[in-house]
Amino acid sequence: MNDQYILAIETSCDETAAAIILNGREIISNVVASQIESQKRFGGVVPEVASRHHVEQITMIIEETLEKANMQPSELTAVAVTEGPGLVGALLIGINAAKAFAFAHSLPLIPVHHIAGHIYANELVEPMQFPLLALVVSGGHTELVFMKEHGSFEVIGETRDDAAGEAYDKVARVLNMPYPGGPHIDRLAHEAEEGVEFPRAWLEENSYDFSFSGLKSAVINYKHNMDQRGEEIDPQKVAKGFQDSVVEVLTTKTLRAARQYQVKQVIAAGGVSANKGLRTSLEQAFEEAKISFVVPPLKLCTDNAAMIGAAAAHMYNAGVRGNLAMNGLPGKELKSWI
Amino acid sequence: MIWLGIETSNSPLSIAIVKDGQIVEEIVQNEKLTHSVTVMPTIEELFRKANLNPADLDAIAVSEGPGSYTGLRIGVTIAKTLAWTLKKPLVGVSSLQVLAANGQGFAGVICSLFDARRQNVYAAAYDGETMQPVIQDHHNSIGGLLEQLQLLNTPVLFIGLDAVNFKEVITAQLGNQAIFASTSLALPRGSKLIELAQKQSLPSVEEVHNFVPKYHRITEAEANWIKDQKKGQ
Fold first, then answer.
1. Which amino acids does the record list as binding substrate (chain A) (predicted)?
2. Considering the domain boundaries, does residue B6 fall inside one?
3. Geometric angle at alpha carbon A292, from A291 and A298, rounded to 5°
4. Domain containing B56: what range?
């Protein structure tokens, strides 16, 4: 079999990223231009600003990716790109660049779901074992996905309101921490012995869905009450109380789902899986449960194009192809490709 | 010399291929379709009809703004990616000038404008003979634009799909000074874009990376941020 080199492009939010992946497993080059320095002025991602940065960066990032790999377009097998979900204006830059590049070099296109990409980031660490359960947690997503084999996805639980990462950012704002708030809360939480007691949203008994807006409101109310009493809040204790609640709910539901679906492996994916508190809790739980648990290295947890290339490799082999009429799909559903 | 011209600055779409000064293929449409869906298939179709390969191109021209932010970005992203990866020069032309060029030959000034909502416009005015700018591309209230045009004291040809949205206020202010171009001139044309691009000197291929749309407005978030910074001083 010939080696398969996929050029992957990802621009769904505030990272302009490109990568070249060999046979779905090996990163040949992986370039990410983050907009955090620009976006933190606004305390969050402003879509129009994100789109403008993507146009500035896109060709430079693809060029750097090819140069680092020391490759010519003619050596590539296909071009993969995130089709959605994400910010539509941001997605359109990656998609139109991918289409123009594919047209210029007569390469096939592969449209990739952003969450499938996050899950397949794990293939760049070690081969996935099926059946498998993936916990996807990021600024835009909180989902439990069951996979009985490659290319098969069943969303068994998802957030009904805020994504976990979104709740982190909002609570960070209450504590006057800069954007993005997740790493700051994680750090503060580790500095406290005891946390403020906040509620856990378990929802219905058998539900694998999540809800974080109640917890977020509880933190805001706590701060408000303390302010009214003229008392200072202890940011470490608030951070720990908040993080303990998020981590306990995520860990408990993931463990219960892993047992019910009798999976061989559990993987964590998405930006929030970089969180130390969450990683430690999941590692412990699955070590005790004797179920294999994998989480990608930090730089593959946050948005990147390597993960898009890893998913695209399997899609390419399954015969999935896009075309020059591809559009950005901001609300794209995670569907099986087999 | 083979040129590809891409014009997606507003809802109409035009793509042209010009070879040695002659139009080989051109499509002009006003179907309110999504540029992201239509532009690349249209380019592919025109190349196929013209029996050309992407590598046969010598230069690319794109409407660089002002206009719809998303429309501009789709055109510029495609133009930029093709130019970079095929190692061809990329020339940007004002989308207002491309539109105004439809009225070239008019004895007076030609004013092209795009509706920017809330009684605002992106607009420019050009000498009808030379096509030199009399009023540069800018963002303005329709009232502010008309005051400038009135002072020119010469007939003004209004051109573009959005000009009719302001017909009443234009006529009220300018009276007989205002003339409205026929609808057959209301859509921008890729061939006009290329014609204007050919008058510029070709930039180096290395400059492609730095090419960005000319929005003529900073984002609302940035404007507010700058305001806050000034307050803090």
1. 136-140, 169, 182, 186, 275
2. yes
3. 135
4. 2-95+188-228
Q: What is the pLDDT of residues B36-79, one digit of tens each?
A: 999 999 999 999 999 999 999 999 999 999 999 999 999 999 99
Q: Whose CA is closest to B76, among A264, A311, A54? A: A54
In percent, the amount of chain B with pLDDT more than 90 equals 97
Strands in B133-141's sheet, in edge-to-edge order, are: B133-141, B120-127, B109-115, B156-159, B178-180
pLDDT of A209: 97
Which residues of B fall below an 8 Å CB-CB distance to A?
34, 36-41, 43-44, 54-55, 69-70, 73-74, 76-78, 80-82, 84-86, 208-209, 212-213, 215, 219-222, 225
* CA geometry: angle A108, A113, A119, nearest 5 deg: 115
Residue A179 burial (C-beta neighbours within 10 Å; 0-12, 13-18, 19+): middle
pLDDT at A10: 98
Residue A73 with chain B: CB contacts under 8 Å: 85
Could you please state the CATH topology (level 3) that the domain comprising A5-119+301-317 is classified under.
Nucleotidyltransferase; domain 5 (3.30.420)
A residues 91-110 closer than 8 Å to B (CB): 92-93, 95-97, 99-101, 103-105
Q: Is A74 annotated as a binding residue?
A: no
pLDDT 10s digits, A208-257: 999 999 999 999 999 999 999 999 999 999 999 999 999 999 999 999 99
Fold annotation for A130-295: Nucleotidyltransferase; domain 5 (3.30.420)
Nearest CA in chain B to A60: B209
A225 marked among binding-site residues: no
CATH of the domain at B129: 3.30.420.40
Q: Examine the pLDDT at B22 and tell me if it is beyond 80.
A: yes
- Work out whether the CA dihedral B33, A308, A303, A267 comes out positive or negative: positive
Band of the pLDDT at A1, cuts 50, 70, 90? Answer: low
Regarding whether B178 and B129 lie in a shared domain, the answer is yes
Reported ipTM: the value is: 0.97
C-alpha to C-alpha distances, A92 to A283, B50, B81, nearest whole angstrom:
37, 28, 13
